[in-house]
Write a structure and sequence with these properties.
Elements: H1 8-15, H2 17-33, H3 35-43, H4 47-74, H5 85-111, H6 118-143, H7 145-150, H8 155-189, H9 195-227
């Protein structure tokens, strides 16, 4: 008879709420990944494509909420891990903001039937794509949580994750620069756009930038786990 030797640490990782944190982040990033295509459909006045992408964002945001609520309902008061329960809930909240913001962008563009001014079209899509890159880099960091748990958030793997967070910060800086340039473009168009639309476009620009900001905050929280 052959007996299988159980690895307690491997079992701990498998049962860990970190697995659900990773699953939730994947769903949140999938919401953000739809935003550039949503804007491109709007630029091309492709209403059918816009509607389909909007619905995908809504569906994926609902899936992120389902994972979030499930995790909150079964997260124990005390964890046998080098991560505090409150810290995990904070990471979950920030991740959820990515999904919520993507949904907010889609909803506002739809409800106001917004048309992107021609000079803003390419810069807006470029900002969205760069913000998505920040989200994707943040997801790569979150995908390393299993390894970090196995190593106690120390050693070579921890240093590699810190380097990944550095790269994340650099991409977020690029998003900030694009956001500022796009705001300047909108400044130059204020006399040709009605005031309410100007306000709404500032909001959209800010929200697209927020996708990158929230993703950066996720990476910074993981860096804090390593620093403790």
């Amino acid at each position: 008879m052959i007996y299988k030797i159980s690895n307690p640490l491997a079992n701990l990782v498998k049962r860990s709420p970190l697995v659900s944190i990773q699953e939730h982040m994947r769903a949140a990033v999938e919401c953000a990944q739809e935003v550039p295509a949503l804007l491109e459909a709007l630029c091309g006045e492709n209403d059918a494509e816009f509607q389909a992408i909007k619905q995908r964002i809504f569906d994926k945001e609902s899936e992120a909420d389902r994972i979030k609520n499930s995790l909150r309902g079964r997260l124990p008061k005390s964890l046998f891990m080098p991560v505090d329960r409150r810290d995990l809930l904070e990471v979950l909240h920030i991740q959820d903001s990515i999904a919520d913001t993507a949904e907010d962008i889609a909803e506002l563009l739809f409800e106001r039937q917004m048309k992107i001014p021609a000079p803003m079209q390419k810069p807006l899509v470029a900002l969205a794509k760069t913000s998505v890159k920040v989200c994707e880099q943040s997801l790569k960091v979150i995908e390393e949580l299993d390894t970090l748990l196995e190593t106690g958030f120390r050693g070579h793997d921890a240093r590699q994750v810190e380097e990944m967070v550095d790269e994340l910060n650099a991409i977020e800086d690029d998003a900030d620069a694009l956001e500022l340039e796009l705001a300047r473009t909108l400044f130059s168009l204020e006399s040709t756009i009605d005031p309410v639309s100007v306000i709404m476009w500032y909001r959209i620009i800010e929200w697209i930038g927020d996708l990158a900001d929230y993703a950066e905050k996720v990476g910074d929280r993981i860096r804090l786990f390593i620093a403790r």
